[in-house]
Design goal:
This is Glycerol acyltransferase. With 277 residues, this protein is an alpha/beta fold. It has a single domain, classed as Glycerol-3-phosphate (1)-acyltransferase, CATH 3.40.1130. Helices cover 40% and strands 16% of the residues. The protein has 11 helices and 10 strands. Strands 1-10-6-2-5-3-4 form a 7-stranded mixed β-sheet, with helices on both faces. A 3-stranded antiparallel β-sheet has the order 7-8-9, with no helix packed on it. α2 packs across α3. The protein is globular. The protein starts with a helix and ends in an 8-residue tail after the last helix.
Length: 277
C-alpha cells in the first residue's frame, strides 16, 4: 500500500507541475483574429451553430458568464460560444474560459490558451475578472459534462455554488448561458464516479468521473481522456438576462439555475431530432 500511495503522489505532482501558472497574457488577439474566419466557418457548417441574444451581455467591463456544460472532453458548446463571443464583441475584448487542469496542460491543446483558456481555479478566475475581462465558467464541471445522454436537457451543477461568491466578491453580474446539443456528440452512458474512486483518480487527477460512452472513433470509450470525434450535432445557445448578485448565495444560485433550465427547455422544445436538431 505504501508503494501505491507513493506512485499516486508522484502522478499528482507530475500533473500539477505541468499546469500552466496563471498568465492571462497567453491570450493572443492576433492569433484569434487569424483563426476566427476558418474556425467559425467550421462551427457554422459542422455544428450548425445558432447563438442567440449575445446583446444581453454587458457591452464592456467584467462579467461572469455561467453555462450548463455538455460534450465530454471535446465540448462543442465551449468551442461555438467562444467563437461567437469573439465574432460579436471583437477579439480585442478580453475573454477567458476556465478548463480542467488536464485540458490546459495537454501539449496538443496549447492553442486553446491563445484563445483565453486557463486552468479552472480561484486564482485565475479572480485575475480574469479583476482585469476587466468576461469570464466563462461551468460550475457543473465533469459531473455535468459526463451526465448520461438521456439527461441531456437537465441542468445539474451538483449543488456547486462557488461561482456566486466569485461574482459577489468581484462585484460583477452573472449572465447565464444555456445550450443544447453537446450531449448528443456521443452517447454518454455513465458518469463513472465509482470507477474514479476505484482508481483513485479523484485524488490524483482531480477527476470525479471516468465516464463510459459510445463515441467515434473508439466505439466503447472509457474515460474520454483521448477525446473523441464529436458527431455533427446542432449546437444551439441562448444567452439569458443578467442576474445581479443581490441576495444570499442560495437565492442567487436558484435564480441562475431557473434561468438556465428555462433557456434549455426553450431550446429543447425547438429540437425535433437528436443530432439533427
Amino acid at each position: 500500500m505504501a508503494g501505491l500511495a507513493e506512485a499516486l503522489e508522484w502522478a499528482r505532482e507530475q500533473i500539477t507541475s505541468r499546469v500552466p501558472k496563471a498568465d492571462l497574457d497567453q491570450r493572443d488577439p492576433d492569433y484569434i483574429r487569424d483563426q476566427l474566419p476558418g474556425t467559425w466557418l467550421l462551427a457554422s457548417l459542422y455544428f450548425r451553430a445558432d447563438v442567440q441574444h449575445l446583446d444581453r451581455i454587458p457591452a464592456e467591463g467584467p462579467v461572469l458568464l455561467v453555462g450548463n456544460h455538455s460534450g465530454g472532453n471535446v465540448p462543442p458548446d465551449t468551442f461555438v460560444f467562444t467563437l461567437a463571443f469573439c465574432s460579436y464583441f471583437g477579439v480585442e475584448r478580453p475573454f477567458y474560459q476556465l478548463a480542467h487542469n488536464l485540458v490546459v496542460s495537454a501539449p496538443p491543446l496549447g492553442w486553446l490558451r491563445k484563445f483565453g483558456t486557463v486552468a479552472a481555479n480561484h486564482e485565475n478566475a479572480c485575475l480574469a475578472l479583476e482585469s476587466g475581462a468576461a469570464l466563462l465558467v461551468y460550475p457543473g464541471g465533469d459531473y455535468e459534462v459526463f451526465r448520461p445522454s438521456w439527461e441531456r436537457h437537465k441542468v445539474d451543477f451538483d449543488g456547486r455554488m462557488g461561482y456566486v461568491k466569485l461574482a459577489r466578491d468581484a462585484g460583477v453580474p452573472i449572465v447565464p448561458v444555456a445550450s443544447v446539443g453537446g450531449q448528443e456528440s456521443a452517447l454518454f452512458l455513465n458518469r463513472g464516479q465509482w470507477l474514479a474512486k476505484l482508481l483513485r483518480a479523484d485524488k490524483t487527477l482531480r477527476l470525479k468521473s471516468i465516464p463510459i460512452s459510445l463515441a467515434l472513433p473508439w466505439g466503447l470509450n472509457i474515460s474520454d481522456l483521448a477525446g473523441h470525434l464529436p458527431l455533427p450535432t446542432k449546437i444551439a445557445i441562448e444567452v439569458q438576462h443578467p442576474i445581479e448578485v443581490d441576495g444570499d448565495d442560495q437565492a442567487v444560485h436558484d435564480k441562475v439555475m431557473a434561468s438556465l433550465q428555462a433557456g434549455v427547455d426553450r431550446l429543447a422544445a425547438r429540437r425535433r431530432f437528436p443530432v439533427i436538431g
